TrEMBL record:
<dbReference type="InterPro" id="IPR036388">
    <property type="entry name" value="WH-like_DNA-bd_sf"/>
</dbReference>
<keyword id="KW-0805">Transcription regulation</keyword>
<dbReference type="InterPro" id="IPR011006">
    <property type="entry name" value="CheY-like_superfamily"/>
</dbReference>
<feature type="domain" description="ANTAR">
    <location>
        <begin position="169"/>
        <end position="230"/>
    </location>
</feature>
<keyword id="KW-0804">Transcription</keyword>
<dbReference type="InterPro" id="IPR029016">
    <property type="entry name" value="GAF-like_dom_sf"/>
</dbReference>
<dbReference type="InterPro" id="IPR012074">
    <property type="entry name" value="GAF_ANTAR"/>
</dbReference>
<dbReference type="GO" id="GO:0003723">
    <property type="term" value="F:RNA binding"/>
</dbReference>
<keyword id="KW-0808">Transferase</keyword>
<dbReference type="Pfam" id="PF13185">
    <property type="entry name" value="GAF_2"/>
</dbReference>
<dbReference type="Pfam" id="PF03861">
    <property type="entry name" value="ANTAR"/>
</dbReference>
<protein>
    <submittedName>
        <fullName>Transcriptional regulator</fullName>
    </submittedName>
</protein>
<dbReference type="InterPro" id="IPR005561">
    <property type="entry name" value="ANTAR"/>
</dbReference>
<dbReference type="InterPro" id="IPR003018">
    <property type="entry name" value="GAF"/>
</dbReference>
<keyword id="KW-0418">Kinase</keyword>
<dbReference type="GO" id="GO:0016301">
    <property type="term" value="F:kinase activity"/>
</dbReference>
């Protein structure tokens, strides 16, 4: 392996591992993966499919327009090495796509028509979780070199860890935002209870009961009513009306 290729490989692994950046874009990330695969693995094209939220598989990136069409066609026909790869979580190889029309009737014919003679699909997986597949395509029939497959699997593994890591961070941020929003709503409700307690001469428990009762009668969210009351947009006497009626009686 030449020094230049060593440097390219090192730079690729560093790039694939760095997903914790503020402007991370998964499509750009996978596009880089396919481009580097072509540069480093002695193949002519590459593509990636990923699992979607509905349990299906969708093309996510490709090194060229033609390889992108092949991945789209594979997803549409649910045939081809990439689909078999994500179903099994294992490497799937076709050294001669023209001879694989029985295994993948529609896909093989389309891929050959697009100018490809061989394909190799590498699973993107971490333990039992398969998130997609990296497909390597050659214009000529024949095997993808074993060291290219090994290196391709290493690239796919690093990319998979990076994507899952980014997803975990995103989920954590969403949970944190939800928690902060919940705490903020709790604070607003406490403020509204204080307004009612002061204006109506009631304790905090009764203030909460009145606040909740007003929200339910008017079919509104408790936090929305509390916010308007705390901001002075809602007159406290409207919320205190049931208490005033009881006291008057």
């Amino acid at each position: 392996m030449s020094n230049t290729r060593d440097q390219q490989l090192a730079a690729t692994f560093v790039s694939l591992a760095d997903t914790l950046v503020a402007d991370f874009d998964v499509l750009d990330f996978l596009g880089m993966l396919t481009e580097r695969a072509v540069e480093l693995l002695r193949v002519d094209a590459a593509g990636v499919i990923l699992a979607d939220q509905r349990g299906g598989w969708r093309p996510a990136a490709a090194s060229s327009e033609t390889s992108g069409l092949v991945e789209v066609f594979a997803a549409q026909t649910r045939q081809g090495p990439c689909l078999d790869c994500v179903r099994t979580g294992r490497l799937v190889v076709s050294e001669d796509l023209a001879a694989d029309t029985e295994r993948w009737p529609q896909f093989a014919a389309f891929a050959v028509g697009a100018g490809f003679g061989a394909a190799c699909a590498i699973p993107m997986r971490l333990r039992d979780e398969v998130i997609g597949a990296l497909t390597l395509l050659k214009t000529a029939s024949g095997p993808v070199e074993p060291d290219s497959i090994s290196l391709g699997q290493a690239l796919a593994d690093v990319a998979t860890i990076g994507i899952l890591q980014q997803r975990a961070v995103t989920r954590h941020e969403i949970v944190s935002e939800q928690l902060q929003a919940t705490l903020h709503r709790r604070t607003v409700i406490e403020q509204a209870k204080g307004v009612l307690a002061e204006r109506g001469g009631v304790d905090m428990h009764e203030a909460y009961t009145l606040l909740r009762g007003y929200a339910r009668v008017n079919r509104r969210r408790l936090s929305d009513v509390a916010g308007e009351l705390a901001n002075g947009e809602l007159d406290a006497t409207q919320v205190l009306a049931p208490h005033a009626d009881t006291r008057g009686a």
